[in-house]
Prior knowledge:
This protein is mainly alpha-helical and 183 residues long. The protein has 7 helices and no strands. Helix 1 (2-59) runs antiparallel to helix 2, helix 1 (2-59) runs antiparallel to helix 5 (114-149) and helix 2 (64-79) packs antiparallel against helix 3 (83-105). The chain is rod-shaped and about 90 Å long.
Amino acid sequence: MAIYILLGIVVVLVVWGVAAYNGLVMFKNRAGEAWSDIDVQLKRRYDLIPNLVSTVKGYAAHESGVFQKVTEARSQAMQAGGTVEKAQAENMLSGALKSLFAVAEAYPDLKANQNFLELQRELSDTENKIQASRRFYNGVVMEYNTKIETVPTNIIANMFTFTKREFFELEEEAAKQPVKVEF
């Protein structure tokens, strides 16, 4: 009788171990998929930026410093690897794009240009998709990291060397501050 109880406990432990392992693999793969969604949106953003810069260049040719800053930030963002480096490069690119749009504000003809308006709309849409992808990625990473750190799945995670993933976080202090509205 004792042998059956012992055998039953072993079977339950094996089933639980397989389920825990499969759950960790599922979360790891979902985090990878979420990261790939971010990459797709970032690629779209990288493709839009040269068109936007060339449109603004036509109206504000003497603002070459801003164009160079955007171009360099875009190149750094495209070459960045890893979650933290990519997040830092993306934050720099977002800041450079803000400078570009600030330049555009000084040129009323540019603001009325249909091509510029379309590029600005597409870029804004892409930024929204990037934010949604970041939120999804961070949500999946939070679940994955929680599984790795909590008992009893941390036993399986340690046995098979599942490692924590990093969040895609905002580094720019100004972006973390609430928007002030003044009248």
